[in-house]
Design goal:
The complex is a heterodimer of chains A (439) and B (160).
Chain A: H1 19-24, H2 29-37, H3 41-51, H4 63-68, E1 79-84, H5 93-100, H6 102-116, E2 120-125, H7 130-145, E3 161-166, H8 176-183, E4 207-211, H9 212-224, H10 226-232, E5 240-247, E6 253-258, E7 261-262, H11 263-269, E8 279-283, E9 292-293, H12 294-297, E10 301-302, H13 304-309, E11 318-323, H14 328-342, H15 348-365, H16 373-384, H17 392-417, H18 424-429
Chain B: H1 5-15, H2 27-38, H3 43-53, H4 57-66, E1 78-83, H5 86-89, H6 93-104, E2 110-111, E3 117-122, E4 134-136, E5 140-142, H7 147-159
Parallel strand pairs in B: 1-3
Antiparallel strand pairs in B: 1-4, 2-3, 4-5
Helix pairs in contact in B: 1-2, 2-3, 3-4
Classes of the chains: A alpha/beta (439), B alpha+beta (160).
Chain lengths: 439, 160
């Protein structure tokens, strides 16, 4: 944990999540100040813009700008949604935020409701983390009992109702418009945009959707001031970010760091590579971000702009580490299977293309690759990109493009020699992806 | 009545989360609650939930068949879902799955002859730092599932 950790500061146990603990840490002070001083919404949005806070769910869209899109004079309900449907392979930060600091998310949402004039909100929680969903419901009950949520918050004329909605196993619902459909009680198939959620969201009403970590950052920004938050990171990349590091490291877990921290520092915090082996590649921002080889990532700092310049994305901050014992064809095969499995089936290029990608990578992996298969992968991926309603199509295509670009020699070797470039014994000693010989 | 009054009370609690007239939003929660009580979702159960919420049964069926934690066929008393996605696989997720297959003598999507255990392959559960990870009956997440810990879990479930 960095010296500047905010959201996860000191929270490595299960006993510090209750309202009284959060208040003891200075929680709800920002909200109380806003309500007491009747802070104008514009002032809050200006502070967020000054903070450089960008969406922590993957897209990195500036939060202050997003909040300014909500119509001011809309008569009737406006909605707020929190996206805690964390299912991008490699990402597991929102689970810990909700587990250890749920009130930071609740306070961030209440402040958002104040700034955007929202009357109702939902936190959509990933299906597989039922225990966390139950805890969040308990935290909501605490906030209601303390007059922080519901009618006439803290004795003011401001009212906001907030509830938890439990998902039930669909990666696609992390896509914001699929999430809206799911809240409405439908299958989670993304909507065509425009209209954007700010004009047509839940039940057709104006809606803003932010990630869990984004909301959790808001009370800290208003507490320390936008500029101070920005200065924790670097220009255009303000604040701290929680990085979920998994794979071949000694201490996988969540590490909250200032944006702009060198990747090498994160790797060291995570205890370095298991078994003293060498780093081979890193998927820096969740499974859909293009993989980067060791020599590139070791020179990167962890922020939106630096990772983008290196040819990938900071995404959700999910860092998947692979050491030299990893067969890159096998790794891509598993990811391609995932996207095929999770495509909602609405758009032909994604529904058919993800299956096609998986089948081709699968046959290369199993020694049945044909000459021209690498070009075929590039062609299919290229024909999915940009041709679907939502980003799942791109999310399936980008890993293929990254793996083929940086590790094309392994794919060519597989096709020519019907086996892995990484010797079997090396893999057995390390990577763990295989159990029985399959190539 | 195919569900207990207690479960129906929970239905009503879920419905109250949404604005009047939007009770359909509670369909995911109600299907999950029905499955918790009955073990799986038969067409009759899905129709019951749909009628309770005043929505077309086909619309409830669409939801039940879209989200992968709903079981549209009977499963064993203990459903174990193992994540084998890449981050878990890099830390032994596939080994955990293979060990479970061997111990239980079944493959994915199969149930032991005594009806006690069903094994499923899962996708990302958002807990990759705890790999290997598995889920028991959708609601209990088990972390760092080494062979020893799998043995302990199975022994505990055997007794239930």
């Amino acid at each position: 944990m960095s010296a500047h950790a905010l959201i996860l500061a000191g929270l490595d146990g299960d006993r510090t999540w209750r309202l009284q603990d959060y208040v003891a840490r200075g929680g709800y002070a920002a909200l109380k100040k806003i309500v007491a001083e009747k802070t104008p919404p514009d002032a809050i949005i200006a502070e967020l813009k000054a903070s450089g806070l960008r969406g922590r769910g993957g897209a990195g869209f500036p939060t202050g700008l997003k909040w300014s899109f909500m119509p001011r004079a809309f008569p009737g309900d406006k909605y707020l949604a929190c996206n805690s449907d964390e299912g991008e392979p490699g990402t597991f930060k929102d689970r810990d935020i909700l587990r250890y600091n749920p009130h930071a998310v609740i306070e961030g949402m209440i402040i958002g409701a104040w700034a955007m004039g929202c009357t109702r909100g939902y936190n959509y929680i990933h299906g597989e983390i039922f225990e966390i969903y139950r805890r969040f419901e308990e935290a909501l009950a605490e906030a209601r009992a303390a007059g922080l949520l519901g009618r006439n918050i803290l004795g003011s004329d401001f009212s906001f109702e907030l509830f938890a909605h439990h998902g039930y196993g669909a990666y696609i619902c992390g896509e914001e418009t699929a999430l809206l459909e799911s809240i409405e009680g439908k299958k989670g198939q993304p909507r065509f945009k425009p209209p954007f959620p700010a004009s047509f969201g839940i039940y057709g009403k104006p809606t803003t959707i932010n990630n869990t970590e984004t909301f959790a950052s808001v009370p800290f920004i208003l507490g320390m001031g936008g500029e101070a938050f920005l200065n924790l990171g670097k220009p255009n990349n303000g604040g701290t970010k929680i990085f979920s590091i998994s794979g071949h490291v000694n201490r996988p877990g969540n590490y909250e760091l200032n944006l702009g921290t060198p990747f090498a520092e994160l790797l060291e915090l995570a205890g370095g590579i298991r078994g003293g082996r060498k780093l081979k590649a890193v998927i820096p921002g969740g499974s859909s971000s293009p993989v980067l080889p060791a020599n590139i990532i070791m020179d990167c700092t962890l922020d939106y702009d630096a990772i983008s310049k290196a040819g990938s994305m900071l995404g959700s901050g999910a860092v998947i580490v692979m050491d030299e014992s990893t067969c890159m064809v096998k790794a891509l095969e598993r990811l391609s299977y995932f996207y095929h499995e999770e495509s909602c089936g609405q758009c032909t290029p994604c529904r058919e293309g993800t299956g096609w990608l998986y089948r081709v990578v699968h046959r290369i992996e199993h020694g049945l690759g044909r000459p021209g298969d690498v070009d075929l992968l590039k062609s299919v991926a290229g024909n999915i990109m940009g041709r679907t309603i939502c980003a799942l199509g791109d999310a399936a295509a980008m890993p293929v493009q990254g793996f083929v670009k940086h590790f094309g020699d392994e794919f060519a070797y597989h096709i020519e020699h019907k086996q892995c470039l990484v010797p079997r014994g090396v893999q057995d000693a390390g990577s763990q992806i295989y159990v029985s010989p399959s190539c | 009545m195919i569900l207990t009054p207690e479960t129906l009370q929970e239905f009503d609690r879920e419905i109250a989360k949404y604005p009047a007239g939007e009770q359909r939003s509670a369909v995911m929660a109600c299907l999950a609650l029905a499955q918790r009580e009955l073990g799986w979702l038969s067409p009759e159960t899905i129709e019951f939930v749909a009628n309770y919420l005043g929505m077309a049964p086909i619309a409830a069926w669409e939801v039940a068949s879209f989200y992968n934690m709903y079981d549209l066929a009977p499963v064993g008393r203990h459903k174990i879902t193992v994540c084998t996605n890449l981050p878990c696989a890099l830390s032994g997720g596939v080994h955990a799955a293979e060990y479970l297959k061997k111990k239980l003598g079944i493959g994915f999507d199969e149930t032991t002859p005594d009806g006690k255990f069903t094994l499923k392959e899962g996708e990302c559960m958002g807990a990759c730092g705890d790999a290997p990870v598995l889920l028991h009956n959708n609601h209990r997440m088990c972390s760092f599932m080494t062979k020893e810990r799998i043995d302990q879990l199975l022994a505990e479930l055997e007794k239930q």
